[in-house]
Automatic annotation (TrEMBL):
Keyword set, alphabetical order: Membrane, Transmembrane, Transmembrane helix
PANTHER family: MYO-INOSITOL-1 PHOSPHATE SYNTHASE (PTHR11510)
Name assigned to this protein: Myo-inositol-1-phosphate synthase GAPDH-like domain-containing protein
Species annotation: Prevotella micans F0438
Pfam families hit by this protein: Inos-1-P_synth, NAD_binding_5
Length: 435
């Protein structure tokens, strides 16, 4: 593909975020501050990373925007949905992630972002108790109201394109069910029949986004778009989808460090991971049914990197444990602690310990920007369905498990996929060389 075949990023790009909490307000505030020249979007691949294109005498390193047509920060407009009615300024203050000096210069713009009523079912997030919610009788009504929200937003802001991102709480786990999730027709009928235990509210957001020709990104471990029915719908609407669960802290470390063990052919006996966090995400995950959704996401990383069937001597008996503990005093300042038991020559044991004291929303915010800009790019480049090149940003990357496909969780393989997608969209050849 030549870059000339990619539709230009003309006009405004609307970013509609499900959730007006710590992550989304940190993201929105950062973008507003960055385009005023008052902050730097550090951590965003689209703003800082460079990719090598060409070889030998033709070799050069370019920012993404110099390879492909990306939307600019000045052209972004925002909207949110949330169960709480506080505007984005109030929500940013409440989150206590950013200091006043990094909020007040864009106060007026934040105050203008008032969350739309959320499509919400308390059975999916029992610890959340907001009153800014839609009074829909069925899941299909949820879909119709969300579609109208998207249409209204486009009309009011006159944006030419919209991306929808989920940055809300983790829902209870909804396993794939062939009776409801296999085909688009089944999914639509379940929505109309209001089969609530099989149709999560997040599925209504995803369906509404795709129905309105908007890419959809699942930033939680919810199985929302990780079902064949949604794959079918994304292909029918020729829209990109990606997920699931923003890869910010501990899993980022795991996906980068596990390849060291594998590449060095060291053995892995066990990996114990625990987290403490005190924000709303921690509160929701304190509910066992919601934690299970996160646990499934976080547990999937290691076993696809250190494969037992390929190296039984090294990885045939890994004990992998993940815990999350709600600890209010930490608020958004999450701590991830890993104990890794490895073994080497002649089976002698060794240990590695990693203590990552991070800021959850500070790490997540640039991912939202990258995913919004890159999914918009994918749509303009005619790429639709599951966007595997966005796996770099995800804890539990989407893949076609119905035919035995495994997710790529190795961070460095994911980075190669990301760079090659940018190269191909920009009209350059794919390249496996690491540099």
């Amino acid at each position: 593909m030549k870059q000339s075949e990619v539709a230009p990023a003309t006009g405004k790009l609307g970013i509609m975020v499900v959730g007006c909490g710590a992550v989304s307000t940190t993201f929105i505030t950062g973008v507003l501050m960055a385009r005023k020249g008052l902050a730097k979007p550090i951590g965003a691949m689209t703003q800082y990373d460079k990719i090598r294109v060409g070889k030998n005498a033709e070799k050069k390193y370019l920012h993404y925007k110099d390879i492909v047509p990306l939307a600019e920060l000045k052209d972004i407009v925002f909207a949110t949905w949330d169960v709480y009615p506080q505007n984005a300024y109030q929500a940013t203050i409440y989150a206590e992630v950013l200091q006043p000096k990094d909020i007040e210069p864009v106060r007026d713009e934040l105050e203008a972002i008032r969350p739309l009523k959320a499509a919400f079912d308390k059975n999916y997030a029992k610890r959340i108790d907001g009153d800014n919610v839609k009074t829909c009788l069925t899941r299909w009504e949820m879909v119709e109201e969300l579609r109208q929200d998207i249409r209204n937003f486009k009309q009011q802001t006159r944006c030419s394109r919209v991306v929808v991102l989920w940055a809300a709480s983790t829902e209870i786990y909804v396993p794939y069910n062939k009776q409801y999730h296999k085909t688009l027709a089944q999914l639509e009928q379940a929505m109309k029949d209001d089969v609530r235990e099989q149709i999560a509210p997040s599925m209504c957001y995803a369906y509404a986004a795709l129905a309105e020709s908007c890419p959809f990104i699942m930033g939680a471990p919810n199985t929302t778009v990780d079902i064949p029915a949604m794959w079918e719908f994304a292909e029918k609407m020729r829209m990109p989808i990606a997920g699931k669960d923003f890869k910010t802290g501990q899993t980022l470390v795991k996906s980068g460090f596990a390849p060291i063990i594998k590449t060095r052919n060291l053995g892995l006996a066990g990996w114990f991971s625990t987290n403490i966090l005190g924000n709303r995400d921690g509160l929701v995950l304190d509910e066992p049914a919601n934690f299970h959704t996160k646990e499934v996401s976080k547990l999937s990383t290691l076993e696809t990197i250190c494969k037992a069937d390929e190296q039984p001597d090294l990885y045939g008996d890994i004990y992998h444990k993940v815990r999350i503990n709600y600890y209010p005093p930490r608020n958004d300042n999450k701590e991830g602690w890993d104990n890794i038991d490895i073994f080497g020559w002649m089976g002698y044991p060794m240990q590695i310990k990693i203590n990552f004291l991070c800021r959850d929303s500070i790490l997540a915010a640039p991912l939202l920007l990258d995913l919004a800009l890159l999914s918009d790019l994918a749509a303009r480049a005619g790429r639709y369905g599951t966007q595997r090149f966005l796996s770099f940003f995800m804890k539990s990357p989407m893949h076609d498990y119905t035919c035995g496909e495994e997710a790529v969780n190795n961070l460095f393989e994911q980075y190669t996929m990301l760079k090659n997608a940018i190269r191909e969209i920009g009209g350059y050849e794919a390249d496996e060389e690491i540099d």
